[in-house]
């Protein structure tokens, strides 16, 4: 575990291969597909975000395409089990050096990326809409199937979690501007780690990342949760403090 944590500290992300064993993976995939069929609230639709490639409104063709099934923790006991799995807890406790909490306000979702109407996500840091005493949170992204550059996998800029940027490097929506020459230099260094089903990608809340469209013919499913140490609290009155957290 230590070399993985060292890699996360250095690069801002690390892939832990096959963290989810085959049997659990198959059950998670069944649960994920059942959740998508049921379409229970709370959902985030592609049309709500209108990122490049998404339908312009809920009334347009593909307007019902789901991007995130929110509050994964409460949706299915299996999802909750993986949010709080011993392997994740130990990993996070070792990284943070203290007991950890899982946010139910951020990520905590089953991400879907559809071949049709699934959008591209521009360069950003997840911390952009989060509000904590320190910018030190780590997310885990469980790939429920293969993820690669062709089906909309993440791209990450190594070492970007340690970089400091002026406000002019981001647009109004806090996306890292791809039209800024200095930004482009960083974006050129990005990599898209290929994930195999069951792999877990750990990444820091300040790591710049983006994702492409899904050019395959199958929906991509990923389960994503975010964690922080107990000494790093969400700021009172913010969205980050809006939901009781899960004490691991
Ligand atoms: O899968 C994607 O399009 C990107 C997801 C992402 O980066 C995010 O939700 O912060």
Overall description:
By secondary structure, the protein is an alpha+beta fold. Strands 1, 2, 3, 4, 5, 7, 9, 11 and 12 form a nine-stranded antiparallel beta sheet that branches. The two termini are 18 Å apart. Helix content is 24%, strand content 21%. The model has no long low-confidence stretch (mean pLDDT 97). The structure holds 2-oxoglutaric acid. Residues 111, 113, 121, 126, 152, 209, 211 line the site of 2-oxoglutaric acid (AKG).
Bound small molecules, by name, code or SMILES, are: 2-oxoglutaric acid
**In what range is the share of β-strand residues?**
15-25%
Count of discrete alpha- or pi-helical segments spanning 4 or more residues = 7
* Biggest beta sheet attributes: 9 strands, antiparallel
Number of DSSP-assigned strands: 12
Distance from N terminus to C terminus (CA atoms, Å) equals 18 Å
Mean pLDDT: 97
Radius of gyration: 17 Å
Shape: globular
Tell me roughly what share of residues is in helical segments. Answer: 10-25%
Assign the structural class, choosing from mainly alpha, mainly beta, alpha/beta, alpha+beta, or little secondary structure. alpha+beta
Secondary-structure element order, as H and E? HEHEHEHHHEEEEEHEEEE
Could you name the ranges where pLDDT drops below 50 across 5 or more consecutive residues? none
């Amino acid at each position: 575990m230590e070399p993985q944590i060292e890699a996360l500290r250095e690069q801002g992300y690390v892939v832990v291969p096959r963290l989810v064993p085959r049997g659990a993976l198959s059950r998670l995939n069944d649960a994920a597909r059942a959740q998508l069929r049921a379409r229970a609230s709370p959902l985030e639709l592609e049309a709500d975000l209108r990122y490049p490639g998404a339908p312009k409104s809920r009334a347009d063709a593909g307007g019902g395409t789901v991007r995130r099934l929110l509050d994964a923790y409460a949706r299915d006991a299996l999802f909750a089990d993986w949010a709080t799995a011993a392997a994740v807890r130990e990993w996070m406790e070792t990284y943070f050096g203290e007991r950890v909490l899982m946010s139910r306000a951020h990520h905590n979702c089953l991400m879907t990326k559809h071949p049709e109407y699934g959008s591209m996500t521009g360069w950003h840091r997840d911390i952009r809409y989060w509000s904590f005493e320190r910018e030190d949170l780590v997310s885990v992204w469980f790939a429920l199937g293969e993820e690669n550059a062709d089906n909309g996998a993440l791209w990450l800029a190594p070492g970007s979690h340690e970089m400091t940027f002026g406000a002019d490097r981001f647009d109004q929506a806090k996306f890292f501007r791809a039209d800024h020459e200095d930004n482009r230099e960083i974006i050129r260094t990005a990599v898209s780690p290929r994930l195999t089903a069951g792999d877990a990608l750990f990444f820091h809340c300040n790591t710049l990342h983006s994702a492409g469209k899904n050019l395959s013919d199958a929906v991509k499913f990923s389960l994503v949760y975010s964690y922080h140490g107990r000494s790093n609290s969400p700021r009172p009155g913010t969205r980050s403090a809006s939901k009781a957290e899960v004490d691991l």
